[in-house]
Design a protein that fits this description.
The chain has 96 residues and is α+β, with helices and mostly antiparallel strands. 14% of the residues lie in helices and 20% in strands.
């Protein structure tokens, strides 16, 4: 089977999907694998390192070098920066 952006990892050991090959697709700037097990996620992490990228699942979770989900700190929610400096002579509730 040939398809642009597709590659096969032939050294994949028979894992959860009981095949001796893992199919990976390059699409829209992402490497996509259907139902990756821990061994495939480890391989994806190695590929991501060379691309300065991360391995992320469908639910937004990230994976580390061992193929296990890693906890990432929640991004801090910061208040928006004011677009104009406040005028000490103008009350805060006046917009004009």
């Amino acid at each position: 089977m040939e398809q642009t952006g597709m590659c096969v990892w032939k050294e994949y050991s028979p894992g959860e999907n009981r095949e001796n090959a893992a199919w990976l697709w390059w699409s829209g700037g992402n490497i996509v694998v259907k139902n990756p097990d821990q061994e495939i996620r480890r391989k994806m992490w190695l590929i991501a390192q060379s691309l300065e990228a991360e391995v992320q699942g469908e639910e937004g979770e990230y994976y580390g070098r061992d193929g296990e989900s890693i906890v990432t700190p929640a991004k801090a929610i910061l208040p928006p920066e004011p677009s104009m400096p406040s005028d000490p002579k103008r009350p805060w509730w006046k917009f004009w």
